[in-house]
Amino acid sequence: MAKQEDPLTGEALIKEVCRRIRVARSYWDAHNNAACRGERSRALALYSTLTKEQKDQIPQVLGVWLRYRSEKYFGEHLSPPKSKRKSK
After folding, report:
1. How far apart are the C-alpha atoms of 66 and 84, rounded to whole Å?
2. How far apart are CA 83 and CA 75, in angstroms?
């Protein structure tokens, strides 16, 4: 069995948040909304654990995309995605 990784802290946590936002943006650019939604939710979960000082270290373009632009398309105010229907 795989060993459970220690929770990220400090600089490693900031780098992981940035990495996840970049991955979500690459899925967004590739029009892969399902993967983008999942990666964005992981990035948001990590982002919410950051302190104010740590959030200030996230590049502005990444933070803006995560908080505002992606919220417009994937926010809680929207209905969830429909499941794919099997063709007969």
Report:
1. 26
2. 18
